[in-house]
Amino acid sequence: MLTAQQLDFIQDQVPDILPFVDLAVTVGDHIMGLKSNCSVDYKDDNSPVTTADKEANEIITTHLHQITPSITVVSEENEVDVSNEGLCWSVDPLDGTSQFIEGHKGFSVNIGLVFDGTPIMGIVACPAHGSVYYAGLDGKAYKQTGDDPAIQIHSRKNVDPSKLRVGFNTFCSPIEKYQRVTETLAERFNLHFPEQPIDINNIIPQLLVADGADENALDAYVKTGSKQRPLNRAGGFNWDNDAIRAIVRAAGGGVTDAYNWHNGLNNPADRTKRQHAYITWADRQMRDRTFPEGAPTLH
């Protein structure tokens, strides 16, 4: 919870979220224009990077430096070592590069603002869907589709723990990892996960957790990473997650560490390190009731 003094400090730096929403949408449109003519290279870790990643990164970082010159920008495409103290932008200019390359719709432009390690503002533009989700310092989450007015969104509440609508992305992870995580959770915390989760490939799954009014809304999303990646490095990087987590929290949801429940929060001081596997919950109160005091939660 931000103090009044902290809120004043942040608002002096970033008085309005809407210019950054417009930036994310503009970059998303630019990415869509590159779909038919986009070269692919590979990083040292064998993950793909495209012309779209690089151009989107250049547009975003240039604008952020111009609008907020005193705030550090941490991006997937130009890593900067920064501590968990103070303000920083956390950017994934094209989250879901593999989806983009394969012609799926499950990619996005993520711009998050982080204060002392906690995401406090987030914008996620989904250009293939013509929509953008965002959460600002007012503590509310919104969705805007096309030129329609933005509407406030809320995650599902009063969820029946025995009838969870759980999402999982088989494009990114094998079902065996889902079963490993959920079976352990079921045994330790008396949760009931479906044996076959809902396969979510064509939109960012956490947004279906945040938007309880969506016809495909989820109660939870399990993130376990690729087949070869262990669960203690399966949750992606901060820049993958910060913007989305700000939106989920503003909508009423929350996140739980799905790898190590009893050894404290998993929010690396080095923001370039991978996070643990995690579960995003629609009903934060249900999450807090289910897990014992002290069990790791990620904002």
Report on the structure:
30% of the residues lie in helices and 22% in strands. It is an alpha+beta fold and 299 residues long. The chain has two domains: 150 residues, 2-Layer Sandwich (Fructose-1,6-Bisphosphatase, Chain A, domain 1), CATH 3.30.540.10; 125 residues, 3-Layer(aba) Sandwich (D-Maltodextrin-Binding Protein, domain 2). The protein has a seven-stranded mixed beta sheet, with helices on both faces. The N and C termini lie close together (10 Å). 47% of the residues are buried. About 2% of the residues have low confidence.
Task: List strands and helices in order, with pairings.
Elements: H1 4-13, H2 18-32, E1 40-42, E2 48-50, H3 51-67, E3 72-75, E4 87-95, H4 97-102, E5 108-115, E6 118-126, E7 131-135, E8 141-145, E9 151-153, E10 166-168, H5 175-189, E11 198-199, H6 205-210, E12 220-223, H7 238-251, E13 254-257, E14 278-281, H8 284-290
Parallel strand pairs: 3-4, 10-11, 10-12
Antiparallel strand pairs: 1-2, 4-5, 5-6, 6-7, 7-8, 8-9, 12-14, 13-14
Helix pairs in contact: 2-3
What's the quick description here?
The protein is α+β, with helices and mostly antiparallel strands and about 300 residues long. The protein has helices at about 5-15, 20-30, 50-65, 95-100, 175-190, 205-210, 240-250, 285-290; strands at about 40, 50, 70-75, 85-95, 110-115, 120-125, 130-135, 140-145, 150-155, 165-170, 200, 220-225, 255, 280.
